[in-house]
Write a structure and sequence with these properties.
mainly beta
């Protein structure tokens, strides 16, 4: 969809990565919700057409939101072109996949003439695998 499509939501999205050795997070992706291939209305129709219930409070996820530019690819698999083009961080580290202790932060907002509405942020850290006893 294009941002001009009335079914599209113009929500700016960013993803930051901060590794154990990094002093501050680094933005690795900037995309827009309007780049979805299927609108949310279409996704809801697909979800329910086969008889799957949808009730108030249900949480639906859009999946990966990739844009047309390299920096708007929505996941590390795409950002690193299946691992053949590592992301080079400011401190010289490279990433193909997430590593232990990496923290990912996602944020989104809408902006117009004289206003900005933020949706906050969500963050998570990759913990090392638990050793078996």
């Amino acid at each position: 969809m294009k941002q001009s499509d009335p079914r599209a939501f113009d929500i700016q999205l960013e993803v930051y990565l901060q590794g154990r050795q990094m002093e501050e997070p680094q933005r690795i992706c900037s995309s827009n919700f309007s780049h979805l291939y299927w609108s949310m209305a279409q996704q809801i129709a697909h979800h329910t057409v086969g008889g799957c219930n949808l009730r108030p409070g249900d949480l639906l996820a859009s999946g990966t939101i990739s844009g047309p530019e390299k920096e708007s690819r929505g996941c590390l698999l795409e950002l690193t072109w299946r691992g053949s083009e590592p992301i080079v961080m400011k401190n010289g580290e490279q990433r193909i996949w997430l590593e232990d202790e990496d923290q990912i932060t996602m944020t989104g907002w809408c902006q117009g003439d004289g206003y900005r509405i933020g949706f906050g942020e969500v963050a998570g850290r990759i913990l090392p695998a638990k050793e078996s006893d």
